[in-house]
Amino acid sequence: MQKLVVIGAGMASGRVLEHLFEQAPDAYEVTLFNAEARGNYNRIMLSPVLSGEKSYAEIVTHDDDWYNGNKVTCRFGESVVGIDRARKVVIGENGEVAYDKLLIGTGSAPFIIPVPGKDLPGVISYRDLDDTNAMIEASSKGGSAVVIGGGLLGLEAAAGLAQRGMDVTVLHLMGHLMERQLDEAAGYLLRKDLEGRGITVKTQASTKAILGEDKAEAVLLDSGETLPADLVVMAVGIRPETRLANDAGLTVGRGIEVSAQMQTSDPDVYAVGECVEFDGQLFGLVAPLYDQAKVVAAALLGEDGAFVPKELSTKLKVTGCDLFSAGDFAEGEGREDIVFRDPARGVYKRLVIEDNRLIGAVMYGDTADGNWFFGLIKDGTDIEEMRDTLIFGPSYQGGAAADPLSAVAALPLDAEICGCNGICKGTIVSAIEGGATDLGAIKATTKASASCGTCTGLVEQVLQVTLGDDFQMPASQAICGCTDLSHEDVRRLIKSQELKSQAAVWQELGWSTPNGCHVCRPAVNYYLLADWPLEYQDDPQSRFINERKHANIQKDGTFSVVPRMFGGMTTPDELRAIADAADKYKVPTVHVTGGQRIDLLGVKGEDLPAIWADLNAAGMVSGHAYAKGLRTVKTCVGKDHCRFGTQDSTGLGIQLEKKLWGSWTPHKVKLAVSGCPRNCAEATCKDIGVVCVDSGYQIGVAGAAGMDVKETERLAEARTEQEAIDLATAFMQLYRENAKYLDRPYKWVAKVGLDWVKERVVDDLEERAALIARFELSQTIYRKDPWAEEAESKSEQYQPLADLTLEAAE
Amino acid sequence: MMEAMTDTEVRTFIEVTEYWVPEEGVLKLAGGNYGDLTEFKAASGQTSFAKGEGLPGMAWAEERPVVFKTLDPASFKRADAARAAGLTSAVAVPLFDGKALKAVLVVLCGDGEDRIGALEVWQSKDNLLMLEDGYYGAAKHFEFVSKHTHFPRGQGLPGAVWAANTPILMRDLGSSYGFVRSESAGQAGLTTGLGLPVPVPSGETFVLTLLSARGTPIARRFEIWDARAARVGKDGAAVLIDGICAREGRLWAAEAEEPRRAAAWQGLIGRVLGSGLPVVDQGVAGIAAGYENFVALPIHSKGEVSHIVAWYS
Questions:
Q1: Considering CB atoms only, which of B4, B155, B179 is closest to A141?
Q2: Which Pfam families does its entry note (chain B) (predicted)?
Q3: How far is the C-alpha of A664 from the C-alpha of A627, rounded, in Å?
C-alpha cells in the first residue's frame, strides 16, 4: 500500500479523501495533519454558526467515525514544521512521516492590515472555528464591534455579531460594499438592508490604527474619526498559505503553482484548494475547490483528469439578504446592460451582454432566476432570440411590467397633490369629472400646479388615472433616456424619499441604466448635494471637466485661472502676486473680465496646482469662474468715493460675496451692487442685483444679459444692509433648492412666478430664516477654496497622461 | 451529530394545537391535534367563535397574537373542558393574507413543575421589540428576564426575524440568542428557538417565538420552507431552507446538495402551499421521519405564501 500524507484537513483535501476512499479504499494509507485540533468541517457555514442559526455539530463534515472507518491516521492539533523532499518525509512537531505522495492543502491565511495596534488582544481575523468561538465569546459581553472589510466574510461576521447583540460598524475601503461581486446599485440595496438591521456601514473608510492600552478599545480612521471597539474583526482578504511549500523549494508564485493535474513542481507533491495558484488564478470559493479535489483524486489513482476553472457565482449567507452575482459586470465598450428595478420591492437586476451572450448578472432582492442566468453565462448561450424578455427569466409569460401609475391610483382622495395651494387629489378628480380634462383647465379651476409647478407631473398622473386613454400625457420631459422622470419629479422625490446617494436615486427611482449618463449625472449630483449637504458627498466624476479641474478649459487645451476678488476689490500686493504668477508660469494672456476680475489665460494643466498654491500664498482663493455657482459680485465704488453714491456698495458687495462664495447652484449666478440708480455696476441685468438708494436697497432678481437680455424684477426693498444680505441669501437658497439644473434664475422665476418666490423669501419671515439657515448649513461644507484642497492633495492628477497637444485639432 | 435535542419519550410542552377558519362570519374548527384529550376535542368541535368572542375571536378582532395565561370562563369559552383536561394557558395566532383572515392557530399548554419552554409574542414599540406577552411554563426566571429585555432590529432571534422578515431557527440558545438572554436560556435548558413574523393588516410588527427545551420540547423536528417566487421561481413550489431533527440531524442543504422541494398539493407541506391554510394532523401518512404529530403554518406576504414553518413531535 502506498503512503499518502495530507497537510491540512480543509474542505478541499477532505473532498479528495472522499473521492479516493469511494473509488479505491485500499490504494493508500493516509496520514492527515491538521494544525486545528479537529477534522474537516464545512467552513463556509461558519457564519450561521456565528449568528446562532446553526450549531457546530451540524457543520462537521468528517467526524471521528469517518476517519476511523477509513483508517486515516489523524494528527490533529499538530503543525507541520517542514517537508524534506529528498527523503520524502513530512516533519511534524511530534515526528516524521514518510510519503510516496504528498498533498498540500494548507488553505489560506487572513490578510492582516499593517496598522498600529493590529496585535492587540481583541483584534481577530475570521477564518476558522476558533475565530468564530472567539467572536461568540466576545459578543456575550455586548459592547461594540468594528469589522474591517465589507466583503462576503466581513458582512457575514457583521450580521452575526449584530444578531448576537453587539453594536456593529463595518468599515470598507471602497465606495460600495462587496465591490468585487456587486455593482454600485446592488451594493446600495445591500447596505440599506444591513443598516435596517442596525449595522452602521462606513464606505471609503480607511483604518489608521487600532487604539487601546492592553486590549483593543477603539479604531482610528484616516479621517480622524474614532470608533469604540471592544472587538475588531479583520476581514479584508486572504492570501494563500505557502510557507511550507516555499521552504520545501516548490515553485511558488502568489500561491503554490500547480499544473492542470494539480501537480506541483515536484511530481510526487500535489496541492489543492486556496493555497494553489493555477494559470495565474487563486481560488477562494468552494465550487472550484471541489473540481480540483476530483482531479487530485484521479491523479493519485493514475487516472486522467484536468482542472478547468469555471465561472463562479456568489451568494451571501445573511438571512434575509438575497443577492446573486456571477460573471463579469464591469462596464465596457461593446457591452450592453439590461436593467430591471422594482423600487417598492427593493429589487434590482442587471444583465450584461456582449456579442449576444450573457457575460454577467447581478441581482438583489429577486434571485430566483440566478442559476438560470448563471447557466447562460457558463454555456455562452446565444440570447439574441430572447433578448427582449431575458431579464424576466425562464418562466416569463408575457406579464405586464410594473405600472408607474399604480402609486398615484392608490393615493387616497384627501392626499395633497399641490402643496403650494393645498389642493388634494379629490378636488382635482372632481374638477376632472366636472370637465377639466387637461393641465391648463385644472390649473384654472383648482389652482393645482399653478404656483411652483413641481406637482405638474403628479397632476398629469391624476388626469391619466382618472381619464385613462382620454388623457394624453404631454411629450416626455424626462431628464434623459435613463428615466421617464422630469427634473422636477426627481428633485421632489430626492427630498420626499430622502434619497441621499446616487445609488439611491438610480434604484429607488427605477433608473434604466446602471449609473446614469453624462446628462443626468451632473444634475442628480447637484440635486443631492443641494438637498443633503451633510450626508451626500460631492462626486467629481459627475461634473463637467471645468468643475472637475477647477479651471476653464480653453480651446487649445490650456486653462484659465481667475482668482477671486471679493466685490471686485483688490490690492497692490494681490496685483503683484498675480503679475508674478503670470511671469513665473509664462501666462500668455492676462485679461480683465466684465465681472471685475483678472483672468490668466493659457495656463498648462500640470501647472495648475502650483499657480494656485502661489496665489493662495498671496491670500487669494478660487474665483469659481468655471462653476455652476456664485461667480462674481460686481460693485461700483459707492459713497466713499462717488459723489452720487448713496450707500457703501463695495462694502455690501464684499459682504455678499463672502457670504455666498463656494456654494453650488443649478447654474452660474452673477451679482452686482450699484451705489445709486445710475447703476454703474449694471446691477439690473444680474441674477441678483442690488441698487442702493437713499432709503435703503432695492433687491432685483432674475435679470439676464446673455443670449437673453432681461431686466431684473423687484423682489423687495431692504432698509438695512443685513436685510439686503438676508433677502439675497434666502433667494439664492430657494433657487438652489427648487430650480431645475441648468436653469438660470430668470428661467426658474419665469416658471414658478415671482409671487411664489416673494411669498417665501419676503413675506414669510420664518421661511426666510429657515432658507438662510439651510444655506449656512450647506456652506459649512462648501465655503472652502477648492484650489487649496486640490493643490495640496491631488496635484499628481494634474500631470499630463499623454501629450495631448499633438491632437490640438480637436 | 445532533446534541440539541434528544429523542426520548417525554410529554411535549404544547398539549393541544388546533386551527380555526372563518366561515359565514364565524370561526369554525378546521383541524387539530388533541392527543388523548378527547373530551376537550369534542367540546371544541361543538364550538364556534364570532369576531371578538373568546380567544380565537379576540385574535381575529384585535388583529394580533393573544396570550392567555389563565383560562378564565369570562374570556375563554371552553374553560370548563380545558380545566378538566388539565390545560391552563393558551396562545392564539391570527394568520392574515393582507387584510383577509385565513385562519387562527391556537395552542394550549398544561402546567407542571417540569414544563419548560416559551411561547412569546414580541411587538415593536419605539423601534424596539418588546415582549407583548408570553407563556413560559415553569421557566420563571427566564420569563422575568424576557420581560425586561428588548431587541433592536437585527439583534437576537426576535430582532433577526424582524430585520430579515423571514422565519429563523436558532440553535444552542444557551450560547446565542442575544447576549442578554443567553445565560438564563441556558439555565432554563432552552436549546432551540423558532421565530416567525406574524403579519397583520395594520402593518404593526409582531414576532412569535417558540423556544424549545430538551426536557419538554415543543417539537423534535423543525422546518422552514421558502416559497417566495423571488427566491424559488414562479412555479409555486417551496424549498426547505433550514431545519433540524432529533432523528435525522441537519435538514438544510449544504453546498452542492439539492434542497428538498415541495410542489403545491404535494404531501403535507404541499397542502399548506396549495390551500394557504395551516395543516395540523396526527398519525397520518407522510409525516417525516416517523413522527406522530405535524403542525405547519403558512406565512402570507405580499399576496403569496412566502414561507411555511412546520414542527413535528
A1: B179
A2: GAF_2 (PF13185)
A3: 8
Per-residue pLDDT at A410 exceeds 70: no
Q: Which of A566, A588, A622 is the last residue of a domain?
A: A622
- Kind and range of the H or E run holding A57: helix A56-59
* A803 found inside a domain: no
pLDDT, tens digit (0-9, with 9 covering 90-100), for B128-182: 999 999 999 999 989 998 999 899 999 889 999 999 999 999 988 876 555 457 7
Q: Dump pLDDT digits (tens) for B175-207.
A: 655 545 777 888 888 889 999 999 999 999 999
Reduced to 3 states (helix: H, G, I; strand: E, B; else coil), residue B227 is coil
Find the closest chain B residue to A56 by CA distance.
B1
Give the SS3 label for residue B112: coil
Answer yes or no: is pLDDT of A6 > 70: yes
**Is A479 part of a structural domain of the chain?**
no
Beta bridge partners of B125: B128
- Mutation target to probe the B interface, by most B beta carbons within 10 A, among A15, A50, A55, A395 is A55
Pair (A293, A337) in one structural domain: no
pLDDT at residue A400, as a whole number: 35
| CB-based contact A57 B152, cutoff 8 Å | no
Which CATH number belongs to the domain containing residue A592 in this structure?
3.90.480.10
| Residue A500 is assigned to a structural domain of this protein | no
Q: Per residue in B17-39, pLDDT tens? A: 999 999 999 999 999 999 999 99
Q: Can you give the pLDDT at residue A429?
A: 84
Q: Domain B113-218's class?
A: alpha beta
Residues of B in contact with A345 (CB under 8 A): 230, 302
Positions of E strands within chain B: 14-23, 26-33, 48-50, 66-68, 87-97, 100-110, 116-125, 128-137, 150-151, 168-170, 190-197, 206-213, 221-226, 238-245, 249-250, 261-262, 279-282, 293-301, 304-312
Which residues have a Cβ under 8 Å from the Cβ of A276 and sit 6 or more positions away?
A240, A255, A256, A257, A258, A262, A282, A283, A292
pLDDT at residue A314, rounded to an integer? 78
Is A162 in Cβ contact with B156 (below 8 Å)?
no
In tens, the pLDDT along A683-732 reads 999 999 999 999 999 999 999 998 889 999 999 999 999 999 999 999 99
Distance from CA of B65 to the nearest CA of A (A): 23
Residue B255 in contact with partner chain A when CB distance is under 8 A: yes
* Stretch (H or E) spanning A169: strand A167-171
Residue type, A762: V
A680 labelled binding-site residue: yes
What range defines the domain where residue A296 resides? 2-108+240-300
- Name the closest residue on chain A to residue B241, using Cα atoms: A319
CA-to-CA distance for A119 and A227, rounded, in angstroms?
18
Which of A53, A165, A393 minimises the CB distance to B156?
A165
CB distance A165 to B156 below 8 Å: yes
pLDDT of A386 above 90: no
**Segment A524-557, tens digit of pLDDT:** 999 999 999 999 999 988 888 888 888 888 888 8
pTM for the complete prediction? 0.72
Nearest C-alpha neighbor of B144 from the set B108, B192, B183: B183
Answer whether A178's CB lies under 8 Å from A152's CB: yes
Residues of A in CB contact (< 8 Å) with B are 42, 44-45, 51-55, 57-58, 60, 63, 136, 139-142, 159, 162-166, 196-199, 286-287, 290, 319-322, 345, 347, 365-369, 393, 395
Q: Which CATH number fits domain B221-313: 3.10.20.70, 3.20.20.70, 3.30.450.40, 3.60.20.10?
A: 3.30.450.40
Select B10-111's CATH number: 3.40.50.150, 3.30.450.40, 3.90.226.10, 3.30.565.10.
3.30.450.40
